[in-house]
Write a structure and sequence with these properties.
Blueprint (H helix, E strand, L loop, with lengths): L3 H5 L11 H10 L25 E6 L1 H8 L13 E11 L6 E14 L3
Antiparallel strand pairs: 1-3, 2-3
Length: 116
């Protein structure tokens, strides 16, 4: 498995998985208010899984999601010009009972190319 250090240095020929101490060190080293720079935008007419494209997924209570999303307002500028935001925010449903889960929500934001 590729180490986190080697992955950060661009040696991406193998899959990698960082360990918590590596993630915390890396996370703490990032400058605050780093500009959002999407480089892997989903094509305008793309259908299917978008996990390989730049996007955001936040799960948990509405209070938690709202507190995180409020810190991501720089992403809003990608809903104009050559790109648009595909947004979803909804309450989770229990797969067994089909009832809404009281405090379980999910927020998705995906940057997609606009049709020309």
């Amino acid at each position: 498995m590729l180490s986190f250090k080697n992955w950060c240095e661009g040696k991406q020929n193998l899959t990698w998985k960082a360990k918590k101490p590596e993630i915390l060190t890396y996370w703490n080293s990032l400058p605050p208010s780093m500009p959002v720079q999407p480089i892997n935008v989903a094509p305008a007419d793309y259908h299917g899984s978008t996990y390989m494209y730049d996007g955001i997924r936040v799960t948990g209570s509405r209070q938690f999601i709202d507190s995180i999303v409020s810190k991501l307002k720089d992403v809003l500028k990608y809903d104009e010009g050559n790109t648009k935001l595909m947004l979803r925010y909804y309450q989770q449903i229990d797969k067994n009972t089909q009832y809404p889960l009281p405090n379980s929500f999910v927020f998705y934001a995906q940057i997609r190319a606009n049709k020309e």
